[in-house]
Please model this.
Amino acid sequence: MAYASASDVEVELGRPAVSAAETAQWEAWLERVERAIRRRFTREGYDLDVQVALDAPTEEDVIDVEVARVVDKINNPTSSTSTTTTRSVDDASISNTTRREGVDTGEALTITDAEWVSLLPVRPRRSKAFSILPS
Model:
């Protein structure tokens, strides 16, 4: 069970799920995002539940990331992108729009680098300084 719930997604979207199937889908996506978080925490040598109990990160931080990923997936299910290039010469301009239709690769559920920074505990930096004792 994920930290976030479908009701958190509803609040973020400002609308309720339209069916029980949609609620189940959101719950599945939330669980997928949490599994990714847990895997990364394990690779980094941490336990997510222990870290949340220590408020590093807070439970709200985890919920925010899980919900953000699911809302992105809802708003852009195929991870499509659109790029517009405008060239201007004198008084005329030409615009070209390139649209990349994605297949559902799950990219919308991928946690961003900024989100990882907010989630992962900060490791103390090892000092590169050293001491020399007088003889």
The radius of gyration is 21 Å.
